[in-house]
Each structure stands twice: as structure tokens, then as C-alpha cells.
């Protein structure tokens, strides 16, 4: 059960944007309207705000964010110096919002996630939860391929012991202390949805139906989806390395049995021309070794990247409005 109920928070809604010129205006309008009604209903403080993170877009996204910051006092904009990817952009936004907010909701710019669920997330915060996961009820609007591959991925992750909320992406509410906890994970290869459960604190879920992208195309092509899945596995678990060891062990055991069989055949005078089996086993072993080296290489690569302690992102500009009071609008 969560801790004691809490008063209305100063809420920040963080939106990573990469080449989102087609959806930005709609997104800003919808989220502003939502924020406004929540202020009126006294669910959140009047100085709550939206924070758009421009992840090195090459279109007019940043110009639009800048204009919104000028026109609207409840809008903030953060520009990264280059495209760092969704996870880093989100972390940059969380880091910028945390010192100014009691609760932070993260949502994608295309508003595929139902923004009304944010109200229920805030209610979760009021009830004392530090983490409120947005969970997709059905994925009918996703393509068959995206749905099936995502389900397979969640199953694979669970089988390897990674705790992760199924059908939850990066639509969630975090309290200030949960964000600060998350930011203490300084690894370069951050897989946020695997890290949040590790931070702990009372958590709950809010279910919603996911819609279609309002405009523009997905910024997650298959290549980026696979990269995220790989990132998720190799940065959260060493199970694949253990599987390699287990595989190696079983192959050794099988070879031992096979050697025994061959010796028996030899001494009973039943030896045969065995080149197909030899060739096959060479190929098979070669394959197993290459695969194993590849997986080990992936982890070694991770160590290499972590050892360099490179910064996760650089902020090019941060537009923070001095006056952020929605009730004065
Ligand atoms: N995004 C980002 N950097 C990237 C790719 C995506 O900040 O390199 C943002 C994008 O603007 C959107 C969110 O991440 O707000 C999720 O992307 P998208 O909606 O295209 O993914 P999908 O819903 O197709 O998985
Ligand atoms: Mg989307």
C-alpha cells in the first residue's frame, strides 16, 4: 500500500521530440488544454509546465518549440546538441524538470498514448504512489508485426529475469524522488523502463487504449526497435552469457558421449567413412563459437563504452520561462 496522500503537485510533462514538426502544434495544444483543466480542478499546481526536448531534429521542431516558449509561459524547451536517441532525450528532460517539479509525466510527442490517462496518473500521485506506469490495454492500432515482436520481446526479457512492466513504454509518472533515484543510474546505455522498477518506491498502473500516431511517421524504424531490444537485454541482464556457458557445457557432454560411441565402434571394427559428420560438426561448432563470441563481444563493447564515461547528452539551449503560472492566463 502506498504512503500517505499528498497535496497537488507541481507537474511537469516531458515530451521528447525528434523531427516532430507535423505533430508538435497539436501535441502542445492538447497537453496545454489538459494541464489547464487539471489546474482548474486543483489537481496540480498553477505553475505546472510542459517541457519539450528537441533531440537534434533536422526539421522545424525546435523553431516551433522556441515560438511556443515565447508565446506560452507554461512551456519550456530544451535543445540537445545532436540526435542522442529517445532514451537519452528523455533522461535529459527528466534531469531538467526534476529540480522544478514534484511529479513528472513523460509521454511521446505523437500522443498515441491517451493523455486522459495523465489525470489518473496524477490521482495515483495524490494517493501516495511514486511511480505510475501507463499500460496499454490493447495494441490493435499497432501493426501485427510490431505487436507480435513486442510481445515476444517482453516474454524473452521475463524469461531472462528482467523485471519489466509488460505493455508499458515510456508513458509514466514519476515523483521527484523517483526521478532523482533514476538519475543516479549513470550508465551510458540506459534502458529506462528496465531501470524504473529497480528504483523501487510504491508503484501502481494505469490502463489505457493506445491510438494511432496523429501525424508523421514512426521515429522507431525496425533498426531502432532492434537496437532498443538489444540495449534492453545486454544492459539489464547477463543471462545470455550464462546461456553460452550452459550451451558449451552441454555440447562438451554430448561430445564426450559421442567419443565413447566412436571408440566402441572402432574397437568393434565398425568404423565408417565419416567425413560428412566431421564436416557438419566443424560447421556447427564454428557457428556456436561465432555466436558465443558475438554475444560476449556485445557485453565487452558495453564495458568499453561504460569505461569511457562519456556524457549522455549535451544541452545546447534551455528555454525556461521565469513566469509559469497557468492561473494567470
Ligand atoms: N524520439 C526521440 N529521438 C529519437 C527517436 C524518437 O526523441 O531518436 C521521440 C519521438 O519524437 C517520439 C518518441 O521518441 O516522441 C517515440 O517515438 P515514436 O512515436 O516514433 O515511436 P513508436 O511509437 O513508433 O514506437
Ligand atoms: Mg509513437
From TrEMBL:
GO MF annotation list: glycosyltransferase activity
Domain Glycosyltransferase 2-like: 13-151
Origin: domain of life: Bacteria
Membrane-spanning residues: 243-263, 275-300
InterPro entries per the UniProt record, alphabetical: Glyco_trans_2-like, Glycosyltransferase_2, Nucleotide-diphossugar_trans
Keyword tags: Glycosyltransferase, Membrane, Transferase, Transmembrane, Transmembrane helix
Name of the protein in its database record: Glycosyltransferase
GO cellular component term of the entry, any: plasma membrane
Protein localization: Membrane
SUPFAM superfamilies assigned to the protein according to its UniProt record, in alphabetical order: Nucleotide-diphospho-sugar transferases
Main location: membrane
Organism: Acetobacter malorum
Membrane topology, from the record: Multi-pass membrane protein
Pfam families: Glycos_transf_2
Amino acid at each position: 500500500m502506498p504512503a500517505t496522500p499528498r497535496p497537488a503537485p507541481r507537474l511537469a510533462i516531458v515530451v521528447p521530440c525528434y523531427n516532430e514538426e507535423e505533430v508538435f502544434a497539436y501535441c502542445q495544444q492538447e497537453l496545454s488544454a489538459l494541464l489547464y483543466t487539471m489546474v482548474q480542478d486543483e489537481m496540480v499546481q498553477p505553475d505546472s509546465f510542459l517541457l519539450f526536448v528537441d533531440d537534434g531534429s533536422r526539421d522545424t521542431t525546435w523553431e516551433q518549440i522556441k515560438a511556443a516558449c515565447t508565446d506560452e509561459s507554461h512551456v519550456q524547451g530544451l535543445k540537445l546538441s545532436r540526435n542522442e536517441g529517445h532514451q537519452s532525450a528523455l533522461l535529459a528532460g527528466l534531469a531538467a524538470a526534476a529540480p522544478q517539479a514534484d511529479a513528472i509525466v513523460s509521454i511521446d510527442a505523437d500522443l498515441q498514448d491517451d493523455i486522459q490517462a495523465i489525470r489518473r496518473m496524477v490521482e495515483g500521485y495524490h494517493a501516495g504512489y511514486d511511480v505510475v506506469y501507463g499500460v496499454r490495454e490493447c495494441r490493435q492500432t499497432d501493426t501485427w508485426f510490431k505487436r507480435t515482436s513486442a510481445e515476444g520481446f517482453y516474454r524473452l526479457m521475463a524469461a531472462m529475469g528482467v523485471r519489466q512492466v509488460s505493455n508499458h513504454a515510456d508513458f509514466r509518472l514519476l515523483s521527484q524522488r523517483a526521478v532523482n533515484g533514476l538519475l543516479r543510474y549513470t550508465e551510458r546505455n540506459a534502458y529506462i523502463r528496465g531501470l524504473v522498477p529497480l528504483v523501487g518506491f510504491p508503484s501502481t498502473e494505469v490502463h489505457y487504449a493506445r491510438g494511432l500516431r496523429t501525424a508523421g511517421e514512426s521515429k522507431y524504424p525496425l533498426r531502432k526497435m532492434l537496437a532498443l531490444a538489444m540495449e534492453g537485454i545486454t544492459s539489464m541482464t547477463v543471462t545470455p552469457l550464462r546461456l553460452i556457458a550452459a550451451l558449451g557445457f552441454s555440447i562438451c557432454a554430448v561430445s564426450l558421449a559421442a567419443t565413447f560411441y566412436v571408440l566402441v565402434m572402432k574397437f568393434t571394427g565398425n568404423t565408417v567413412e565419416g567425413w560428412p559428420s566431421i564436416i557438419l560438426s566443424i560447421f556447427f561448432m564454428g557457428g556456436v563459437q561465432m555466436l558465443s563470441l558475438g554475444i560476449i563481444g556485445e557485453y565487452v563493447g558495453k564495458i568499453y563504452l561504460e569505461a569511457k564515461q562519456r556524457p549522455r547528452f549535451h544541452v545546447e539551449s534551455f528555454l525556461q520561462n521565469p513566469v509559469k503560472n497557468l492561473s494567470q492566463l
